[in-house]
């Protein structure tokens, strides 16, 4: 009997993250994204608003990788992604991703008792100085915000500094997610996209320490 497809596991997310640089260099989002729509992993809106809004082919592939992680609850999406890589000239890369054993231990975990705590504006401020300013747009996309949302936040807050823009992006995400905007969920978003936003491990550890002690 065939094994039932499952959602993407944390280990599989780490495999993709560990190979993100190679994926962006070697994979053309345009070659494979329509197949994800055909199988209902992505919607047409996902492709148009998220992937195709990237200004370069590399940026589009970065957005596809982010979208994969956002859709990781869909059964079979990890294997489907690797199958598409293999079908489109990247069989060796698919094999490398599947066999990757490297974990991501650069960032500390949050205590169990804090995982279900709601994100506060104070938490957002602690996390607002943990990655470079040039990744503002990428970070907003990681939070599931549209380009229009991100542009409005930048226009309204850039005069107060980059950290204020990042703080505001997190609070917009928090307000839209309501009771599901937990510290664990935000922590996972930071970790799952750490390479894309060049998350600073030391700064992030210090921010988490402040959150834990607050």
Could you walk me through the main structural features you see in this protein, from its secondary elements to its overall organization?
This protein is mainly α. The protein folds into 2 domains: 10-99, Death Domain, Fas, CATH 1.10.533.10; 112-213, Death Domain, Fas, CATH 1.10.533. Helices cover 61% and strands 0% of the residues. It has 13 helices and no strands. Helix 2 (20-26) packs across helix 5 (57-70), helix 4 (44-51) packs across helix 5 (57-70) and helix 6 runs antiparallel to helix 7 (91-99). The chain starts with 9 loop residues before the first helix and ends with a helix.
Notable features of this structure?
214 residues; Death Domain, Fas; mainly alpha; globular; 13 helices
Write the layout of secondary structure elements.
Blueprint: H1 10-18, H2 20-26, H3 29-38, H4 44-51, H5 57-70, H6 77-87, H7 91-99, H8 121-126, H9 136-142, H10 147-157, H11 162-177, H12 183-192, H13 201-213
Number of domains: 2
Q: CATH superfamily of the largest domain, please?
A: Death Domain, Fas
The SSE string, one letter per element, is: HHHHHHHHHHHHH
Q: Provide the low-confidence segments as ranges.
A: none
Radius of gyration: 17 Å
Average pLDDT: 89
At CATH level 3, the topology of the largest domain is Death Domain, Fas
CATH architecture annotation name of the largest domain? Orthogonal Bundle
What fraction, in percent, of the residue positions are helical?
Answer: 55-70%
User: Which descriptor suits the 3D outline?
Assistant: globular
Question: How many strand units?
Answer: 0
Give the strand content.
under 5%
**Class inferred from helices and paired strands:** mainly alpha
SS field, number of helical segments: 13
Under CATH at level 1, the class of the largest domain stands as: Mainly Alpha
* Largest sheet composition: none
Q: What distance separates the N and C termini?
A: 52 Å
InterPro entries: CARD (IPR001315), DEATH-like_dom_sf (IPR011029), Death_dom (IPR000488)
Pfam family, one: CARD
Protein name: Death domain-containing protein CRADD
GO biological process, one term: regulation of apoptotic process
């Amino acid at each position: 009997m065939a094994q039932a497809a499952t959602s993407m596991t944390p280990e599989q997310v780490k495999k993709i993250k560990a190979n993100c640089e190679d994926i962006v260099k070697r994979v053309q989002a345009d070659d494979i994204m329509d197949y994800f729509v055909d199988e209902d992993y992505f919607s047409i809106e996902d492709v148009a608003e998220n992937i195709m809004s990237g200004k370069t082919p590399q940026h589009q592939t970065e957005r596809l990788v982010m979208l994969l992680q956002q859709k990781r609850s869909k059964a079979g999406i990890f294997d489907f992604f690797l199958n598409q890589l293999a079908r489109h000239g990247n069989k060796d890369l698919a094999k490398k991703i599947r066999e990757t054993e490297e974990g991501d231990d650069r960032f500390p975990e949050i205590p169990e008792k804090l995982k279900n705590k709601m994100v506060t504006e104070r938490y957002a401020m602690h996390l607002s100085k943990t990655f470079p300013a040039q990744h503002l747009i990428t970070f907003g996309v990681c939070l599931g915000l549209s380009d229009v949302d991100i542009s409005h936040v930048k226009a309204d807050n850039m005069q107060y500094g980059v950290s204020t823009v990042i703080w505001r992006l997190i609070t917009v995400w928090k307000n839209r997610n309501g009771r599901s905007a937990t510290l664990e969920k935000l922590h996972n978003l930071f970790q799952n996209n750490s390479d894309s936003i060049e998350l600073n491990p030391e700064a992030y550890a210090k921010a988490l320490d402040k959150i834990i002690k607050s």
